[in-house]
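Exam review. A common question shows you a sequence with its structure tokens and asks you to describe the fold in words. Practice with the pair below. Do the first one on your own.
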Amino acid sequence: MNAQDDVVLIVDDVPDNLAMLHDALDEAGYTVLVALSGEQALQRAVQAQPDIVLLDAMMPGMDGFEVARRLKADARTAPIPVVFMTGLTETEHVVAALAAGGVDYVTKPLKPAEVLARMGVHLATARRARQQTQQALQARSALDAFGYASMTVRVGDGRVLWHTPLARTLLQRYGGLGLPVVPAAVQEWMARQHAAVVAGGGEPPRMALTAVQPAAEGGADGRLLLHLHPPMEEGEAGELLVVMREESGSAAITLLRDAFALTGKEAEVLYWVAQGKINRDIADILGSSPATVKKHLERIHTKLGVETRTAAAASALGRLRQGG
């Protein structure tokens, strides 16, 4: 993007005083709009969506400080950088300009070359912010479209800032992971991982957290794993992307059945063997006898081409780690 693509809104109740600046901007290729009052500035900003606003601090009626506050309070105009133009150089006025939402200020009488240089810096920063926002929106749309259970969480207070529909379903299914704030245990886990990344300067490990057990209606054999992803771009370092994955015993049993050509009962036995259960415990779970479990296990060994219980468990766990 170059200056010919940028729109500058100049707000001053005496525009003739800024003729030299107007001409310099026009000569540099900017599209220049002028507003003569605070009310007109707010209307023009919403309608034209300028790339930057040069705002006179002292105007009759609504002054520049109030204009800036209103621009920043409106989601449609909040991202637009505001540079104050002021003859007031006292510290309190500079602080007031920045507190109202200004990113910079230039003093009168204006020097066009200085204004152009300052504008260039803030326009470049605003472009990068827009690009990052667009990239984040595209990434979120992709996650949503492909059915990933993902959410963005603010590290400081655990607030869920964004989530895909599938993520909402899982959050509601698993007791204790309600919106809009994740539980304290999850906040603490995220804060530890985030601190480790900041200290080490690298990406966080793809750690998983078994957050909660599901509610009874969600399936008693499942668990929800939260995988922490690296921090986002600078400026969003306090937000983390978390991808959720539900691990279901029934889904795992189906996977083992299909992977090793087992019967349904054999797949159930192999699943519980992989969980470290002994034959007596498996019999209790499945409502059968230890002898029946032993016969299933013998057939499992044959189908898997292994000789020991440990080898069968290792084969099952390896296949489950690979996923579907």
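Now try the second one, then compare your answer with the model answer below.
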Amino acid sequence: MASDQLTVARRRTGSRTGLTVVAVVLSLLSVFPILWMLSSSFKTRATVTDGKLLPQDLTWDNFTYVFTEVPFGRWLLNSFIMAAVITVAALFFHSMAAYALARLKFPGRDSIFAVVFSTLLITAPVILIPLFIIVRQLGMLDSYAGLIVPLIFNAFGIFLLRQFYLGIPRELEEAAIVDGCGYWRVYFNVVLPLSRPILSALAVFFFLANWNQFAWPLVSTSSADLTVTQVGIASFTTQYGANWNYILAAATVAVLPMLALFLIFQRQMVESIKTSGLK
């Protein structure tokens, strides 16, 4: 009996060790490109493609160029405005839509949710041209409105919030209704306070996604005052080659706030998926 227990314990230890090794290897593979980008951002143009991880001639000139020779600060500001406004608006409208689809009873509710969910099967490049035509007809091209409004809707956010709201006990809402609260008051005073973990996680998802937007800002804007970070970084690529030292320096500056944001809110992101009804 003791030998059997010892054998089981050894198997568990071996299995755990194997999983730990796999996790460490996958983590290193994930982190390595970031380390390479960070290291190469300090290399000169002549050595940036030398294939070595550590720079031999460390220089800060790449960062000096990024912040003095191009309006990189303006690009960062445009990206922040776009990502922040889209995140706030999306969370507000998505939470209301998800609550209605989860709790309110009205004709066609399930059909509407099916249509919303089906949009997850459509990739962004498919709707790029139709979206551009609509925005042009509305006269919103080359403006913050044209940059922001088309990106507010996101079926993933509605789906995740709906799954979360389905897990909230109905008794909490029924008690509020018995006390005389209407749907709006229940939504603002009961549902939203309970939604802070999932809303925090979605805020990180939405902000990251829109901070890294490239295709839509490239198509919908032409003014230099509306250039976002990713489009600006792409401008370092010329007809005859790419200035990889400048590209990697700019990318390093652009990615550091996102890494900090992810590290701060990673617990909320994990908890939101655990409690959203996804099995």
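Model answer, second protein: The first strand starts at residue 237 and ends at 238. The radius of gyration is 24 Å. Full marks require stating both points clearly.
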